[in-house]
Write a structure and sequence with these properties.
Layout (H helix, E strand, L loop, with lengths): L1 H20 L19 E16 L4 E18 L2 E14 L7 E18 L7 E16 L3 E17 L12 E17 L2 E5 L3 E12 L2 E9 L3 E10 L1
Antiparallel strand pairs: 1-2, 1-8, 1-11, 2-3, 3-4, 4-5, 5-6, 6-7, 7-8, 7-9, 9-10, 10-11
Length: about 240
Amino acid sequence: MRNTIQVAALLLSCAVAACAATPSGAGMRDSLTSTDNLGPLSAGVDYQMIKRNVSLDAGGTKVLQARVYSFELGVDLFSWWQVFGTLGSSEAGWDTTDYGGNEIKWSGGTHFNWWHYDITDPDFMEGRLSFQTTAEYSQFRSGNDSNWYDGYADLTLNYELYAEKAKDLKAVPYSLALYGGAALSRLSGHVLGEDFSEDKLVGVVGGVDVYIARNLSVGAQVLVFDKASYGLSARYHF
């Protein structure tokens, strides 16, 4: 009897293991509940190449260079106010010095639309003018015992030119957005044994976003304080 029980237990355990190892493959298409969209969420990826003249605490200046890769998740609190966070990696060095290994980078910030005006005439200028502020606090680390933070804010004038018309909702691109304005960046940290802070606090920012579809965009940005930094991005707004 005892042997019979042991054999039965062994067969049951084998059956459970076999069931657990079965690939799910194509499953059912329906579910208990569903939703039309994911609401006020947006997600994206970014690449930044940062170059900044910085003032060393020990005297003199150097050029900070950093490469940053990150993922962004945003939530619209209102149609005109979004908060977002990023998580990724960064690496940094002085001038043409080899970069240290990638370590964590994170940030938190907000986009705030102050005002807009819709242009309806002439047709070729149909679009929207708006003022927007972006504010963000970021912390970066690099594998060569380097870390720094950046407190950033800007005020930009944005012009979104609509390519989409009521008679052709599938027009590509859907729209084109151009922006430019003033930027402020408070920088401080420690790279390769040197403590530093920003050499120039105020600069300019400009960029373009191409909306491939209503909710999908790719963009490029240039940020100039003393040196030019640039960034590339892709966004999907659910």
